[in-house]
Design goal:
Elements lengths: L1 H10 L4 E4 H7 L8 E6 L6 H11 L14 E6 L2 E7 L4 H7 L2 E4 L4 E4 L2 H11 L2 H14 L5 H14 L3 H17 L1
Parallel strand pairs: 2-4
Antiparallel strand pairs: 1-2, 3-4, 5-6
Helix pairs in contact: 5-6, 5-7, 7-8
C-alpha cells in the first residue's frame, strides 16, 4: 500500500513526506502500525482538486465511521488504510521540504525528518505520541537539531495556548539525557 501510494504521488508530482509509524522506523524506533500516514503538498492551495485526484485514483474510502475532515483523505489501498493528510501553508509545507529520501531496498520514499516527527507528536500530545517521542530522543540523541525543535514547539505552545507542551518536552529530553 505504501509503495502504491508513493508511486501515485511521485507520478503526479505531488510533494509528500511519510509520517507516523512508518517514519518512526526510519529513525531507529520500530513500532507496529496499522495504517500509512502521508503529508501531501497541495499545489496552488487547491484542496478540492487534490482531494478529487486522490479519490479518483483510490476510490475505496476508509474510516467511513469517523466524521470527515476536509484535510484528510482516508482510502483503502490493498486492504490497508492510507491517510493522505493535506498540508496547510507554513509549517506543514516545511515538513515536506525538509523530508529525507530513505531507501527501502530497491525503492525509496520521502520521510519526515526526525525533528519534524517529534514536533508533530508533541503537538498531538497523545500518550502513544509521548512514548514515541521518548524513543526518538533515545534513538537520535545527539543527532537532533534541538534549536529547530524548541523554536517550533515554542511557537505552537504560544499559538495553542499550551505552555505545558514545551515544558513537558524539555522535561522528557532532560530525563532521556540523564539516562544515557
Amino acid at each position: 500500500a505504501l509503495h502504491t501510494a508513493v508511486e501515485f504521488l511521485e507520478q503526479h508530482r505531488l510533494g509528500y513526506a511519510v509520517i507516523g509509524g512508518i517514519s518512526l522506523s526510519q529513525w531507529g524506533y520500530i513500532r507496529y502500525t496499522l495504517d500509512v500516514d502521508i503529508k501531501v503538498l497541495v499545489p496552488n492551495i487547491n484542496y478540492t482538486a487534490t482531494r478529487t485526484e486522490i479519490r479518483a485514483a483510490f476510490p475505496e474510502s476508509a474510516r467511513t465511521h469517523v466524521s470527515q475532515n476536509p484535510l484528510i483523505v482516508s482510502v483503502l489501498i490493498q486492504g490497508v488504510i492510507v491517510d493522505f493528510l493535506l498540508a496547510l501553508p507554513g509549517y506543514e509545507e516545511q515538513i515536506i521540504e525538509r523530508a529525507v529520501r530513505r531507501d527501502l531496498g530497491g525503492w525509496s520514499i520521502q520521510v519526515c525528518s526526525a525533528e519534524d516527527l517529534i514536533i508533530q507528536k508533541v503537538v498531538a500530545g497523545r500518550g502513544r505520541d509521548w512514548l514515541d517521542v521518548e524513543e526518538l530522543l533515545i534513538a537520535q540523541h545527539d543527532r537532533l537539531d534541538e534549536a529547530y525543535i524548541e523554536d517550533w514547539l515554542s511557537q505552537f505552545s504560544e499559538a495553542l495556548e499550551q505552555p505545558e507542551m514545551i515544558l513537558a518536552y524539555q522535561a522528557l529530553r532532560e530525563k532521556v539525557a540523564r539516562n544515557e
